């Protein structure tokens, strides 16, 4: 692995790494409202963006306004970010739906803390997983990513921006308090060492532009406001010209395309890491900081002669079904440790369809699931 | 850089009162070990009300291998800068682990096996700045822990500080290092060096 | 300004766009307009128009156009040339 | 007289691929406001491409779809938040927010006061019809005390907001009120509102006979316009009136007109300053 240039190393918080990743991905607009434990993302953006050429930072009056502002900025051509936690994520659901409907690229980082309601502001949890999937009303596709260590916070933020731009959709990055508040050494990749994708813009004369036209990828090109392509953006179900419609065939065409533009690219979107799963009898399926505990538990189990493996989910939704089925080919037991009452294990069970026995480990006391807890369940087989 | 000593999850907890600079201490040391010495390090800390009021806590996990679980569970070294912190976290010290105390503030040590120095009065009287107490601790630990190179850590410290407080802190760092060597002896941390070379 | 222009207007009402709200009929100082049996505004006394512009400005549906008669007749057609447009794209 | 005037101007700004007449009720003043806005933009000679109309939800929200500008129809009450993002992302654009009274004063009240406090360079056009029209005539914060609505069948108990006082109190740079009866005056106000720096609030009184009038003694649209003609008094005359004379009268005109620079301008100059210094 020859590296032409040495990468800069920093000792950074997970939240700090999100900022580094966002800036590398081309983010030039942050709108937000502070909330523990995500505030460092906002604070660092407040310090960094005004020093860049065209970076805009704005603190809004609440999380609803934060979403409105970043959607507006995205429509005006910016790559945009907001970050929040717990109650703030609930407030963002309204305009999250708008961003899906109006196909507005944006990245929303939710640093999960204990809930419901104000809950446990400074303790980790993974209780927003199903909210990330279904929090906004109506049938909708969504991309939800996750990161389990500080380097991944950087890498997955870049990935989130790329997916948002590529698929013209909001992407949620779910972190938890442990990942966000751990400091670790990370490498900042050099330009050219990672992909940066920017939304496709129309390449025809404005009069011929149909803002929501069917394309092969299902993703129509998107011009920035004010660039000569005048069109109508709305949260109502709309036709190819962007105008509201109630005609059944146009409703179906739009909503099906919104799903299809994600569904046909599962291979690009569904990201996992595997550790020792090739021959594993017992496979732990974990994400976020709990995946770190799981990794240690799997290694200890191997030392104790149990063929254990880890399927680490970096994409939570759309749920990586194929990768799960691969481990199901030989796994007798699936272990799903989570800091919630079993939100991701629902997905695992849905895919498992009774093939392996699914053991869940659930903690809701504001503490991370420890390696020893997971090891105990692995050893029970 | 000389050959890095092999470490397998060495866990340190810094604890004490809010305002003693505990988090900064952990962060500076973590940064020095991660960037200067090339170890894998995870640093976590107490947040929220805990970090504002009474007690403060900052953990480091240091390892030659990638660190999976980032939190400290079983401490190799506990640094207690207040009686409450000492009482609260002593039970997490692993058998054979070391306890470093602020000897003026921890009047009732839970054990006779500890290493103490009056860090606060040293900073106030010998450096002239009481707030430099955490840097005195850093200097002392740079002597105690055999896998820390004093010069590398000092350089890392300097690079993380604004110019106007750099000189004071270097003075505090050197003082801590010198006194630890004098009071605790040359081989105070030898236990870790031996253990690790045996493991390899 | 009004009297000088009396009798010099050409008034067009687009019945498709008129919803028959009656605002133009009610407030026209010359009583130029009436509601037809279909409920649409129609021009009945064009010669009395003083071109105050009220009906045009207050038609919520942009259905009334008042023009200079001489000018329109000189052009033969209702004008469709593009105005002093400020549109970059056109 | 060779200039194109009146509605012929407006026709050039309407979207030709939209079906007219628009969806609003016969006699609804919203169309008049839209026409007035178009004339103001035409007067200012702003290219269509440089205008962004951001609308909320409700009858007023439907206006955006008919005009050939960049148009964004947002969520209920949130138009100003979208507008803030658009203006900050591209300060060159003329961003005009069209909101209703329920939209701007109730669900979006927080955004209105903060947009004013921030003095973001956006024009807020609040179409006040005293009611939630689109959804069937429920009370809004601008429904006059004592009047009858679907959600206050026995009479509105709470006092209504004074939009002008609210906007002024929150720090808006320019605050004015007009009516759809006094169109020329409203047009002048809009021209000024759009050309000023910072945050401008224009309250346009635009009666809803369908949902408000019929329940409150105004049987036809014409009745409502007669009421407007009678009730509206220019601010200077209103100020000379006795308390008694002021009963049921509505002051119109310009209430605040300052020239404080908008948030986006202040941000850009801060950015230039920080960059010149090379960071902190």
Provide the descriptors you would attach to this structure in a database record.
heterotetramer; B: 200 residues; alpha/beta; Pyruvate-ferredoxin Oxidoreductase, domain 3; six-stranded mixed beta sheet; 8 helices; 43% helix; 21% strand; globular; disordered C terminus; D: 280 residues; Rossmann fold; eight-stranded mixed beta sheet; 10 helices; 8 strands
Describe the structure.
The complex is a heterotetramer of chains A (381), B (200), C (90) and D (280). With 381 residues, chain A is an alpha/beta fold. Chain A has helices at residues 14-25, 39-48, 63-75, 86-101, 129-134, 150-167, 177-180, 248-263, 266-269, 290-303, 321-328, 343-352, 371-379, and strands at residues 8-13, 29-32, 56-59, 80-84, 106-114, 120-124, 143-146, 170-176, 183-188, 232-234, 272-275, 282-286, 308-313, 315-317, 333-338, 357-362. In chain A, the strands form three sheets. In chain A, strands 2, 3, 4, 5, 6, 7, 8 and 14 form an eight-stranded mixed sheet that branches. In chain A, strands 11-13-12-15-16 form a five-stranded mixed sheet, with helices on both faces. Chain A has a two-stranded antiparallel sheet with strand order 1-9. The longest helix of chain A is centred in the middle third of the chain and has 18 residues, at 150-167. The two termini of chain A are 38 Å apart. The relative contact order of chain A is 0.12. By secondary structure, chain B is α/β, with parallel strands linked by helices. Chain B has a single domain, classed as Pyruvate-ferredoxin oxidoreductase, PFOR, domain III (Pyruvate-ferredoxin Oxidoreductase, domain 3). Chain B has a six-stranded mixed sheet with strand order 2-3-1-4-5-6, with helices on both faces. Chain C is α+β, with helices and mostly antiparallel strands. Chain C is built from four helices and four strands, in the order αβαββαβα. Chain C is globular and about 30 Å long. The termini of chain C are far apart. The model of chain C is unreliable at 80-90 (pLDDT under 50). The model of chain D has no long low-confidence stretch (mean pLDDT 95). Chain D has ten helices and eight strands. Chain D has one domain (6-277): Thiamin diphosphate (ThDP)-binding fold, Pyr/PP domains (Rossmann fold, 3-Layer(aba) Sandwich), CATH 3.40.50.970. With 280 residues, chain D is α/β, with parallel strands linked by helices. At the A-C interface, loops of A face loops of C.
């Amino acid at each position: 692995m020859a590296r032409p240039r040495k990468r800069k190393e920093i000792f950074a918080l997970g939240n700090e790494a999100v900022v580094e990743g966002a800036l590398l991905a081309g983010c030039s607009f942050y709108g937000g409202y502070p909330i523990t434990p995500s505030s460092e993302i906002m604070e660092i953006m407040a310090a960094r963006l005004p020093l860049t050429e065209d970076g805009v930072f704005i603190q809004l009056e609440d999380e609803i306004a934060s979403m409105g502002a970043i959607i507006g900025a995205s429509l005006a051509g910016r790559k945009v970010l907001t970050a929040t936690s717990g109650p703030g994520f609930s407030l963002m659901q309204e305009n999250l739906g708008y961003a899906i409907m109006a196909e507005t690229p944006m990245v929303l980082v939710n640093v999960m803390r204990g809930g419901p309601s104000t809950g446990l502001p400074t303790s980790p949890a993974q209780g927003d997983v199903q909210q990330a999937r279904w929090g906004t009303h109506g049938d909708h596709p969504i991309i939800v990513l996750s990161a389990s260590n500080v380097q991944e916070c950087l890498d997955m933020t870049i990935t989130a921006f790329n997916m948002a731009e590529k698929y013209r959709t909001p992407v949620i990055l779910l972190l938890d308090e442990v990942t966000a508040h751990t400091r670790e050494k990370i490498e900042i990749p050099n330009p050219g060492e990672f992909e940066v994708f920017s939304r496709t813009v129309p390449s025809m004369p404005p009069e011929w532009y149909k803002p929501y036209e069917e394309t092969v990828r299902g993703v129509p090109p998107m011009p920035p406001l004010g660039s000569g392509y005048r069109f109508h953006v709305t949260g109502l179900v709309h036709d190819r010209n962007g105008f509201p419609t109630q005609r059944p065939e146009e409703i179906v065409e739009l909503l099906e395309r919104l799903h299809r533009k994600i569904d046909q690219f599962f291979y690009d979107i569904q990201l996992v890491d595997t550790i020792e799963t090739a021959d594993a009898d017992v496979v732990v399926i974990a994400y976020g900081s709990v995946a770190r505990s799981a990794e240690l538990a799997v290694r200890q189990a191997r030392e104790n002669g149990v063929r254990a493996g880890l399927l680490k989910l970096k994409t939570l939704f759309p749920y990586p079904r194929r990768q799960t089925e691969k481990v199901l080919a030989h796994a007798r037991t699936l272990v799903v440790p989570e800091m919630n009452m079993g939100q991701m294990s629902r997905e695992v069970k849905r895919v498992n369809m009774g093939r392996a026995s699914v053991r869940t480990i659930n903690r809701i006391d504001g503490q991370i699931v420890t390696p020893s807890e997971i090891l105990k369940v692995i050893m029970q087989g | 850089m000389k050959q890095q000593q092999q470490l397998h999850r060495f866990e340190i907890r810094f604890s004490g009162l809010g305002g003693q600079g505990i988090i900064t201490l952990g962060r500076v040391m973590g940064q020095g070990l991660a960037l200067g010495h090339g170890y894998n390090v995870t640093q976590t800390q107490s947040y929220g009300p805990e970090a504002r009021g009474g007690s403060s806590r900052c953990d480091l996990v240091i390892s030659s291998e990638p660190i999976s679980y980032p939190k400290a569970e079983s401490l190799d070294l506990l640094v207690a800068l207040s009686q409450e912190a000492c009482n609260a976290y002593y039970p997490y010290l692993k058998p054979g682990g070391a306890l470093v105390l602020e000897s003026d503030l921890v009047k009732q040590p839970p054990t006779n096996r500890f290493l103490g120095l009056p860090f606060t009065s040293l900073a106030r009287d010998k450096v002239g700045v009481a707030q430099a107490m955490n840097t005195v601790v850093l200097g002392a630990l740079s002597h105690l822990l055999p896998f820390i190179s004093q010069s590398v850590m000092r350089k890392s410290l300097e690079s993380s500080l604004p110019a106007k407080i750099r000189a004071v802190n270097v003075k505090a760092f050197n003082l801590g290092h010198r006194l630890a060597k004098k009071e605790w002896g040359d081989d105070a941390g030898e236990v870790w060096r031996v253990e690790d070379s045996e493991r390899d | 300004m009004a009297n000088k222009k009396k009798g010099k207007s050409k008034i067009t009402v687009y019945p498709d766009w008129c919803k028959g709200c009656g605002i133009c009929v009610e407030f026209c100082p010359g009583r130029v307009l009436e509601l037809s049996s279909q409920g649409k505004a129609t021009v009945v006394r064009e010669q009395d128009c003083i071109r105050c512009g009220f009906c045009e400005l207050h038609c919520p549906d942009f259905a009334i156009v008042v023009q200079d008669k001489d000018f329109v007749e000189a052009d033969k057609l209702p004008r469709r040339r593009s105005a002093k447009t400020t549109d970059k794209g056109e | 007289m060779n200039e194109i005037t009146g509605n012929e101007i407006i026709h050039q700004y309407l979207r030709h691929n939209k079906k007219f007449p628009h969806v609003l009720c016969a006699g609804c003043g919203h169309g008049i406001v839209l026409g007035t806005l178009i004339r103001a933009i035409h007067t200012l000679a702003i290219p269509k491409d440089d205008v962004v109309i951001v609308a909320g939800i409700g009858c007023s929200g439907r206006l955006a779809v008919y005009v050939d500008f960049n148009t964004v129809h947002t969520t209920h009450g949130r138009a100003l938040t979208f507008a803030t993002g658009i203006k900050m992302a591209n300060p060159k654009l003329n961003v005009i927010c069209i909101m209703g009274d329920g939209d701007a004063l109730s669900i979006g009240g927080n955004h209105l006061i903060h947009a004013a406090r921030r003095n973001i360079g956006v024009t807020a056009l609040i179409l006040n019809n005293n009611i939630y029209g689109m959804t069937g005539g429920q009370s809004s914060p601008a429904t006059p005390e004592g009047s009858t609505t679907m959600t206050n069948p026995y009479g509105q108990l709470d006092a209504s907001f004074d939009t002008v006082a609210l906007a002024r109190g929150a720090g808006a740079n320019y605050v004015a009120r007009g009516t759809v009866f006094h169109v020329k005056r409203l047009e002048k106000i809009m021209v000024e509102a759009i050309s000023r720096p910072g945050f401008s609030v224009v309250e346009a009184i635009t009666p809803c006979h369908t949902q408000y009038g019929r329940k409150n003694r105004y049987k036809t649209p014409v009745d409502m316009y007669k009421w407007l003609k009678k009730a509206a008094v220019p601010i200077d005359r209103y100020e000379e009136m006795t308390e008694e004379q002021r009963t049921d009268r509505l002051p119109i005109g310009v209430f605040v007109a300052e020239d404080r620079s908008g948030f986006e301008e202040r941000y850009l100059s801060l950015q230039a300053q920080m960059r010149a210094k090379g960071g902190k």
